Amino acid sequence: MGVPIFTMVPGLLVLYNVLYTVSSMDPILPGCGTNANYLDQGKDTDLWMAGIFPMAGEWPGGEGCRPSAWMGLHDVNMRSDILPGYHLRMSENDSMCEPGRGTNIMYELLYNEPRKVILLGPGCSEVSTAIAEAAKMWNLLMVSYGSSSPVLSNKERFPTFFRTHPSGLLHNPTRIFLFKKYNWAKIALLINIKEIFTSTGDDLNTLTLSEDISITTRQLFQDDPKSNIANLLNLDARIIVGLFYESVARKVFCEAYHQGLYGPKYVWFILGWFPDNWYRDEVKLREEGVNCTTDEMTLAVEGHITTEIQMLDVQDNSPTYSGLRPLEYKARLLDCIAKREQSSGFPEAPLAYDAVWAIALALNKTMNIMHSRGLDFSDWTYDNDEIHNVTKEALAVTDFRGVSGQVKFTEEGDRLANTQIEQLINNEYHILGYYDKSTDTYIEKTPPFWQNRIPQDSAVIKYKLKIIDGILFISMCLLAGIATVIAVACIVFNIMYWQNRMIQM
Question: Are 320 and 326 contacting, i.e. CB atoms less than 8 angstroms apart?
Fold first, then answer.
């Protein structure tokens, strides 16, 4: 009933959307720590940051990242040595992974009290790109937990942008390593037309040029991959790198099933962002109109390989800066989201937790520097370049061990991390190993499973000498020799007696 009223006043339409988004987001469970009382830590002054999470759309990663961020806030506020006297709070909204909606939300957060000193998120690259271009006009620093577009590494274009999720380009050296390890020199690309994926494909193509690896075809599609799958079949593509979001992946593999582009002779490489049950989620298959059963999808995806940034540092389960061990963090998060390990964004959730800690530690350092200059956060405004620059420098030199590993930023505001490689076997993802780009080292955990042998990157042509049986060969030579003699005799006879009337006839 309220919608027509707001649609009559354009200026209020955005406000309606934002308010509706806030009210429609699932409540955070008590296990995340949101019901804690921080006054015991002397934190009686509110310090606000903005939070933007994708709860729907192409990547609804807020399902896992949002509760994790609230856990981080709780743990930060429970520490009396972090931002003493301040209670770090968050005003949050749902971008639905839409750039326009995300930008509107950012403006609402900025124009409305209380003032937000920093922004956590967004999670989707396209939303981050749109917001980060506007955020620099407000001196608003951003720390994203899920945006991996290589474009966001451009510091001239996005000077206030940082991220705990590394750039998507970090996947490509790992792919190159695996191609060389298994002698795959012919690679096909299947790319959904989005900046994050096309730029990653461009980088992969550049890397292959110096490694004696060829990109045999580069298939781009917008919505329907049917014709592209057919092209891959016609070109006999065997090793295929797919660059697309989770919802698109269901369409791609369903079409691959219908056209037969699956099985032991094919190796698919896709991103490891998706929850473990992404291909057999009956609700999403039905809602998205995917014309495949869960059994058919299971057949189509069997054996595929994923690459993803190491999200949870399970190799070293010692206490992190927050005091939590990585596996303790995982157990708490599962309690926080009611055991929904299959939630979208669950793999990336540690990055959201560490992003909150990166923000808190940077603000804590900023506070100490401001105190030495006779300032505090009450002096903070969007046009205060001094406090902005101090906070930006503090964020740039942040270095601590989080639940996702060591958290530190490059000059571009990117995060460096190891890459985790997994393979799906019998409905279960198995960790094959970890690749460290900086040292070009690979730690193998489990060997990959191949049926009979390592798949080939193309049809193998073999030349084999066929030998005829000796007795048969001699017999046929004798018969051919006798036939030749008889033929020659007939020719000679005809030449000698060509004038004979009977021969002429």
Answer: yes
Residue 226's Cβ-side half-sphere holds a number of Cα atoms within 13 Å equal to 4
Residues in the chain with pLDDT < 50? 1-24, 35
Whether residue 253 contacts residue 442, with contact meaning beta carbons closer than 8 Å, is answered with no
Q: Any idea what DSSP says for residue 170?
A: G
**399 backbone dihedrals φ, ψ, rounded to 5°:** -155, 110
Place of tokens 């992974």: 97
Which tokens sit at 260?
């037969």
**Quick one: which of 146, 176, 178 has its CA closest to 68?**
146
pLDDT tens digit sequence for 402-422: 999 999 999 999 998 889 999
Among residues 255, 197, 188, which one has the least CA distance to residue 217?
188
Q: Which pair of tokens denotes residue 464?
A: 């084999």
The answer to whether 190 touches 255, Cβ cutoff 8 Å, is no
CB 158 within 8 A of CB 179: no
d(CA 273, CA 59): 9
Distance of alpha carbon 356 from the chain centroid: 21
3-state secondary structure (DSSP) of residue 3: helix
b/e code 10-27 from CB counts within 10 Å (16+ = b)? eeeebeebbeebeeeeee
Return the sign of the alpha-carbon dihedral for residues 462, 463, 467, 468: positive
Q: Is residue 264 within 8 Å of residue 304, measured between CB atoms?
A: no
371-404 tens-digit pLDDT:
998 888 988 888 899 999 999 999 999 999 999 9
Q: pTM to 2 decimals?
A: 0.76
